[in-house]
TrEMBL record:
Organism of derivation: Paracoccus aerius
Pfam families in UniProt: DctP
InterPro entries in the cross-refs: DctP_fam, TRAP_DctP, TRAP_DctP_sf
Keywords in alphabetical order: Periplasm, Signal
Protein's name in the database: TRAP transporter substrate-binding protein
Subcellular location: Periplasm
Top-level taxonomic group: Bacteria
Signal peptide location: 1-19
Length: 321
């Protein structure tokens, strides 16, 4: 680990004049991977710095959608968040490269990319966007849920009104596959599914299970079309007030939060399918051949992605072993 943790032990015993409150907003419930990361962060910080900071959690989009919360960080009205790469693409467009379908092969590959040079380079770009990014968290590989039937081939997506994140890379991919992508902020999604305004959505098992999407969706297709990351961020105004010992404690807490999020995702990836079947969802998993048909149908968008992000960067990502 690149961080220096040494001075933290002493800092834990330094009595604060008064504790500073950190408002942390995130999109999902406290018993989700977001909640697990936020709690691990809080506990780690307490271990390092004692009572210097207190946390007020705003789960389930309690402070608004991810975009609004990130704008709050920029303004200094919210101190902390964990937000998905889909939303963050609108703040640092380069992050969009990670949302290219089928670019990241599996969780191991994704974690190595994010923990390595490429991940570090991207986190650094957030300073210019008025945000301070601490570390990459995780959601897992995204799968399609729908009320219109199982998805076996690109033709099954024809005209499907599928909610996507507000991520141009995803919108372009679903359009090329013949669907009718409908970008929408997460807080509106469950209502839109209930009312039939959209037929489906796509998210990792971590989200499908914790948001109980089985209550509003009948079919789950395990296609793993794209890896979904998150970033743990703090407001530049909070970051600017911290001394070096506190900064090291925040960085360690972010590392601990990542460990907790990844463990949560691994657990739900192992147990989530059975849980969703038991809850009544019809689940199908694409074979490697079926998956290849989706990849092949994305040849045109891939040319556009290369033009936008650079074939070199995409090759660097693919070369990470
Ligand atoms: O689909 C999304 O918008 C995201 O995956 C979610 C559920 C808000 C978690 O960041």
């Amino acid at each position: 680990m690149k961080h220096v943790y040494a001075a933290l032990l002493c800092a834990a015993f330094a009595a604060p004049v008064s504790a500073q409150e950190i408002k942390i907003g995130y999109a999902l419930a406290e018993d989700s991977h977001y909640g697990a990361g936020a709690k691990a962060f809080e506990e780690s910080l307490k271990e390092s710095l004692g009572e210097q900071f207190t946390f007020r959690h705003f789960p389930s989009s309690g402070l608004g959608g991810e975009r609004e919360v990130l704008e709050g960080l920029q303004l200094g009205t919210v101190e902390m968040t964990i937000a998905s790469d889909g939303t963050l693409t609108n703040f640092v467009p380069e992050v969009g490269v990670l949302g290219i379908p089928f670019l990241l092969r599996d969780k191991d590959h994704a974690r190595k990319v994010l923990d390595g040079e490429i991940g570090e380079e991207m986190l650094a770009k957030f300073e210019d966007a008025g945000l301070h990014a601490l570390a990459w968290g995780e959601q897992g590989f995204r799968h399609i849920t729908s009320n219109r039937g199982a998805i076996q081939a690109p033709a099954d997506l024809d005209g499907l009104k599928i909610r996507t994140m507000e991520n141009p890379v995803h919108i372009e991919a679903f359009r090329a596959l013949g669907a009718a992508p409908t970008p929408m902020a997460w807080p509106e999604v469950i209502g839109a599914l209930q009312q039939g305004a959209i037929d489906g959505q796509e998210n990792p098992l971590s989200v499908i299970v914790s948001a109980k999407l089985n209550e509003v969706q009948e079919y789950l297709t395990l296609d793993g079309h794209v890896y979904s990351s998150t970033i743990i961020l703090v407001s530049p105004s909070l970051w600017g007030q911290l001394d070096d010992t506190q900064k090291a404690a925040f960085e360690k807490a972010a590392d601990d939060a990542v460990v907790a999020m990844r463990a949560f995702v691994d657990e739900v990836d192992a147990s989530g399918v059975e849980a969703m079947k038991a809850a009544g969802m019809e689940v199908n998993e694409l074979t490697p051949e079926q998956k290849a048909a989706f990849r092949d149908a994305l040849a045109e968008p891939y040319k556009a992605y290369e033009a936008q992000f650079g074939a070199d960067l995409m090759a660097r990502i693919q070369a990470v072993e």
